[in-house]
Amino acid sequence: MVRVPGAEDSLPAVLATLLLAVLVGLPTVSAQSASTNKRVACVAGIADGYPCDAIDLLDFVPVAELGPGAEEVMDIWGWTDPETGAEYAIIGMNDRTSFVDISFPENARVVGWLPHSGAAPSPWRDVKVYANHAYVVADFAGLHGLQVFDLTQLREVTGDPMEFAMTAHYTGFGSAHNVAINEETGFAYAVGASGGDDCAGGLHMINIQIPDTPRFVGCFAHDGTGRAGTGYTHDVQCVQYDGPDQDYQGQEICFGSNETAVSISDVTVKGRPVALSKAEYPGVAYAHQGWLTKDKRFFMLGDELDERGGEPARSIIFDVSDLDDPVYVTDYLATTRSIDHNLYIVGDFAYQANYTAGLRILDMSTPEVPREIAFFDTTPTRRGTGFSGAWSVYPYFESGSIVVSSIGEGLFVLKATHPSLIVDTDAVVELPAQFRVRSAYPNPFAEQSVLSLEMDVPGMLRVAVADMLGREVTVAFDAWSAAGQVDIPVHGSALAAGTYVVHITLNGDTESRLITRQ
After folding, report:
1. Domains and CATH numbers, the chain
2. What is the enclosing helix (H) or strand (E) of 254?
3. Pairwise CA distance, residues 288 & 292, whole Å
4. pLDDT at 21 over 50
5. Residues of 454-470 as b/e, b for ≥16 C-beta within 10 angstroms?
6. What is the overall mean pLDDT for the chain?
7. Full-model pTM
8. Is 17 helix (H, G, I), strand (E, B) or coil?
9. What is the DSSP code string of 25-66?
10. Rounded to an integer, what distance in angstroms lies between the CA atom of residue 475 and that of residue 385?
């Protein structure tokens, strides 16, 4: 139980006492005992028994806690409440979709779950979000259809987890392997569908601009792709195109992972979609899923089955700057013999969920030469090319929290600490209703640098210092703090000469700043 100072406590006095303790080296109450802080730093390649590099473990929710009778987790997505700023992980499971509040990422809280639509449980359940609504599909699940759920209901839950009901139910198809959403246009794309209008397993296109009233608008299947040659799509990314090909500016372009090739299509006019080209590559086994680089010049594809012979995980890089003529560029071979499953690219970094190898983060600043810079293995005792471990990853939270679904394990809440993944380290960091980092002075320093914060709210404040390998070397402050200006000294006596990353965490929000010890 967290003890918050009450009327009998003077917050300024508490803060002064704690600061004095830091200054003179007296012991202070640790976050583990004084709060629900569960963060475990990645130190010497391990975080709480999990192999890692430059990624800390913030919290872990086992499968059994995600809902009664839960067995496995599948896909994962996220939602940030636009009114409260609360962040939620949304996890597809064999028989439900579970919702977890990770606003305080070191104290993840299961809010509730949405049962499946009355069809059979499924080993594939996928979810995406548009306009504060979740859209859920399941494969090999009979007449499951597309579940629609109003996510704003989550903000009302303050007690025990609860079971929710669907907001709407679209039955234009039965089962589907996945669903993708173009949030810029308000169209959803169910892929790998069966039952109803299955669109030959290609794109089943749905207008969701009125979120609780989905409406079928068309089909597209790229002949000559897919194992049966009918245009089956396993996964897809659809974008409002603003890439280098001037012929298609402003068009809605889809990049489908179609088992045997990448399908590129123009679906701007839903009644008359056009196949533009297909990107092929040597040694294809199963073109599973992929993502565009930030400039839309390259497409990175994961092949799910080409590692079954014991080869390292392989990702394929295409130059798609000419949508009519994509070019295979190269392969990226991972450092592990595992299967690459789902990947997403944010800025210059690719986040890969690679089953038994866990989460892998790649530097894509030179897309033709990806470079692994961080990892977190969710299944330390499992190796090889089995279908277990990290299913997917959601790396889009503004807080920097990363959530990973691991099939038999559960939900991992993570935070990358690699210096390349720290944004605006030299700028004043603005966090609405939380805190601002005013300065670190002097910097560089010899004896002491003082980190000056302006805190808009009181709360649990932790200031930790890590080296450039992500290893925590000292904790400058770890206790309750009042709102207002707070100055935290970082003592040079605990540090060797070099550059360090200071991680400042208040009520679960973390920002970072570089300092240099002379």
Report:
1. 11-41+422-517 (2.60.40.3080)
2. strand 252-257
3. 14
4. no
5. ebeebbbbbbbbbbebb
6. 88
7. 0.77
8. helix
9. T-----HHHHS----B--BTTEETTEEEESEEEEEEEEGGGG
10. 39
